[in-house]
Write a structure and sequence with these properties.
heterodimer, A: alpha/beta, B: seven-stranded parallel beta sheet, three-stranded antiparallel beta sheet, 10 strands
Chain lengths: 253, 328
């Protein structure tokens, strides 16, 4: 459907928000579904925002219910929904795609955000910790990012906060302008970010490994073959996953 | 929401089915006592306006329950069980088109049930199932309840299963076969069970085997026989024990479909049960377990962790297998 829309409407672009299953496992065929889905997203989407259930659950807290997780995800997606001072709402998503997912081979992004109870500085500190966690405390590199600040004056962050966030993101050296800062008005001080970071490969690789094990055993394949998804499609999906990891390794060195 | 049709075959299948419908009505009454025909109750029942002879759909907002009809087909080659079922409290749930019966019985012979009666009643069975399927908005699964030791249950049950596989290949087929105990009084039960197993393995999507001995062991652990004259005590305890055994099997069916029938934060649809638990087409035998199992006279509060441990223990399984010796 998305492929058709792009062909018919020409200039339209597509952004997918895809939720990765919990690391502890939700169902035995999740790895197959993840890779087959990723193969299609890589082919047809302009930007893929990957939300990891486990990461969101860790950030929300131990006693979180599904409704809390969903609320957090929606709040984190605010930055791509627009309504910032610097960017008109109708072009916000396009600006995010241009900034963060400009290279078609590496367009998997993550979103996150933290709010502060007292002031923006508290939100910045929390966001820095959150970003460091996402980047594996410096083990992974970020290709590009957009950070939106929400405060009562809709002012941009000061230089010191910006520098903290740049360091936390651990940007790839080849990108001279890796981060965009936006701002918007809000009663509660909050930061939201979109990162294009190589840490997304970790989750995908673990699902891929799981899928390969099952594939070699021939497990659950008959359910997919019933609907015309044969072994070739699985092999294509594994190849897509490998190409994705190679592309991230190439751009993040 | 989706609908399921229960196909009860033979004495055992119909007795389990009878207990199932009693429990299903109680469950839905506990969930919604206002008498509204909701999507959850529509999964196993139809709402019929007897005056205007119309089936009322769930899409009619806040439609009250007029007369419930079970989404079921009842098959038995003997009259006794079906007649007593029709005369029981749940008899009003069934119409004559849902009943397929004969008088002679299959004589504890799989071949009589499968080949003789199977051929004779194939058209009637398909017709009955077709009528029930047409009354469903979105039919998703069949539950086939039957015994493995008898003639009708094993023979007609597997014949019905093969008809469902041929004519409704995309509808999931859950089979709940009741295996005979070691001291079963039917001498041909091993033959019947073995012949039926081949059919079930081929045509069933998901098999939930139940052993009579496991059910009896559970009942023995939970029951407290009344002190009375010897004869009266034995009769009362035995009847109640059979009903309780059947209710455990009924509970399994209701519990595995509960997530699909009632709303929740995370719902697991019936087709996901097959998808997730059957990695290879021939590895379709599952081990059913139930927890908590409580004596009605001594209900105990069990913590969730304890219930989780219980359900994996051999004392709560409906099929006596040692899970520790196998591979998941």
């Amino acid at each position: 459907k998305q492929w058709y829309q792009r062909r018919v409407r020409g200039g339209m672009f597509v952004c997918n928000v895809a939720v990765l299953p919990f690391r502890s496992g939700e169902n035995p065929v999740q790895s197959y579904n993840t890779l087959l889905c990723l193969r299609q997203l890589q082919a047809h989407s302009d930007m893929v925002i990957l939300v990891e259930n486990s990461t969101v659950a860790e950030e929300v807290g131990a006693a979180a219910k599904m409704v809390h997780l969903n609320r957090k995800i929606v709040e984190d997606l605010r930055v791509v929904m627009g309504n910032c001072k610097q960017i008109p709402a109708r072009t916000a998503l396009w600006e995010v795609v241009k900034s963060v997912a400009a290279i078609p081979a590496v367009k998997l992004c993550t979103v996150g955000g933290c709010s502060g109870i007292r002031n923006v500085s508290e939100a910045v500190e929390k966001t820095v910790r959150s970003v460091k966690k996402r980047t594996g405390f410096g083990k992974c590199q970020t290709l590009a990012a957009v950070v939106a600040t929400y405060n009562s004056t809709s002012q941009l962050l000061d230089e010191r906060s910006e520098e903290k966030l740049r360091k936390a993101c651990n940007f790839a050296k080849w990108n001279p302008f890796p981060i965009d800062f936006w701002s918007s008005a809000s009663k509660l001080p909050k930061l939201s970010y979109v990162l294009n970071c190589s840490s997304v490969c970790n989750s995908i690789v673990s699902e891929c490994d799981n899928a390969v094990l099952k594939f070699h055993a021939g497990a659950y394949l008959h359910w997919f073959e019933q609907h015309g998804v044969m072994k070739d499609e699985f092999l294509d999906a594994f190849e897509t996953c490998n190409d994705l990891v190679k592309s991230y390794n190439y751009f993040c060195t | 929401m989706t609908q399921s049709i229960i196909v009860q075959v033979g004495q055992c299948g119909n007795q389990i089915g009878s207990q199932f419908w009693v429990n299903a009505l109680k469950e839905h009454a506990n969930f919604d006592d206002k008498g509204i025909f909701t999507e959850s109750i529509a999964s196993f029942f139809r709402n019929v306006d007897a005056k205007n002879k119309k089936n009322l759909s769930v899409t009619t907002p806040a439609s009250k329950i007029h007369r419930l009809r079970a989404r079921a087909v009842l098959i038995d080659m003997e009259e006794g069980v079906l007649n007593s079922l029709i005369k029981s409290d749940v008899g009003e749930l069934f119409t004559s088109t849902q009943l397929i019966q004969d008088v002679s019985g299959a004589g504890n012979n799989w071949a009589t049930g499968y080949h003789f009666y199977g051929k004779q009643f194939s058209e009637k069975i398909l017709d009955s199932i077709r009528k029930e399927a047409e009354l469903c908005d979105c039919l998703q699964s069949f539950f086939v309840l039957h015994s493995m030791g008898g003639g009708t249950g094993s023979g007609m049950g597997t014949r019905t299963l093969s008809l469902l596989a041929d004519h409704y290949p995309e509808i999931f087929r859950f089979v709940v076969p009741v295996y005979p105990s070691v001291d079963d009084d039917v001498i041909t039960s091993p033959y019947n069970a073995t012949l039926a197993m081949g059919q079930i393995s081929e045509h069933g999507n998901c098999v939930l085997p139940v052993e009579n001995q496991a059910l009896a062991a559970i009942c023995e652990r939970l029951s407290t026989p009344k002190v009375d004259t010897i004869r009266h005590t034995v009769t009362e305890t035995k009847e109640k024990a059979f009903n309780r055994m059947n209710s455990f099997v009924a509970k399994v069916i209701m519990d595995i479909t509960a997530s699909a029938r009632f709303d929740g934060a995370i719902n697991v649809d019936i087709n996901e049960i097959s998808m997730n638990l059957v990695p290879f087409p021939r590895a379709n035998y599952l081990v059913p377990g139930v927890a908590p199992l409580q004596s009605p006279k001594m209900p105990q509060q069990r913590h969730l962790d304890a219930i989780f441990s219980d359900v994996f223990s051999p004392t709560h399984q409906l099929c006596r297998v040692d899970l520790r010796k196998g591979v998941f």
